[in-house]
Amino acid sequence: MVSTLFRECLMDVYIAEHGGEAAFEVMLSHAENDEQRYILGTLLQAETEGKALMRPLISRLGLPLLDPGNTRAETAAATEPFKEVPWRERFVFLGEAVRTTYLPRYEELATLVSADEDAQAAKIAQFMGTHERALLALAVNVIDGVADPAAPVAAILHFPLARLA
Ligand SMILES: [Fe+2]
Questions:
Q1: Tens-of-pLDDT digits for all 165 residues of the chain?
Q2: Ligand 1 centroid to 50 CA: how many Å?
Q3: In whole angstroms, what is the distance from residue 140 CA to residue 134 CA?
Q4: Which has fewest Cβ within 10 Å: 71, 104, 114, 122?
Q5: Domain membership flag for residue 161
Q6: CA 17 to ligand 1 center in whole angstroms
Q7: 6: CA distance to ligand 1 center in Å?
């Protein structure tokens, strides 16, 4: 039996994946070339896979599969102004948001459950920490001008995109 704290953190992470998916959809709609489409498409895929991976656990724990709030619309609206921000600078903001807000919560998830308590939950919790660290690595790569900056995220996808750029 997992704790209430784990359930709350799991829902925060699950809802954040909805928000991430909405944000990367908006950014993808403003992409200017194949490289940007590949990077943003890879990020979008990571958020979609994050949701898909968590759904069986969310369902088994009797938690809501649908976002009880309005996260998708709110995040999409908040992301829209970033189309005016230069490409690399967008990843400065993304990296900061991940480092200060999302990564601490994502990494907390694995501290709130043990494999003895719930093996599937513990495995997913570990993976979501890995997922968020990969997002941060991508942001740092774009900022630093590293070739194939999306590689850390592509490496953890179950269904990676073909790289055209
Ligand atoms: Fe995510």
A1: 899 999 999 999 999 999 999 999 999 999 999 999 999 999 999 999 999 999 999 999 999 999 989 999 999 999 999 999 999 999 999 999 999 999 999 999 999 999 999 999 999 999 999 999 999 999 999 999 999 999 999 999 999 999 875
A2: 6
A3: 10
A4: 104
A5: no
A6: 5
A7: 17
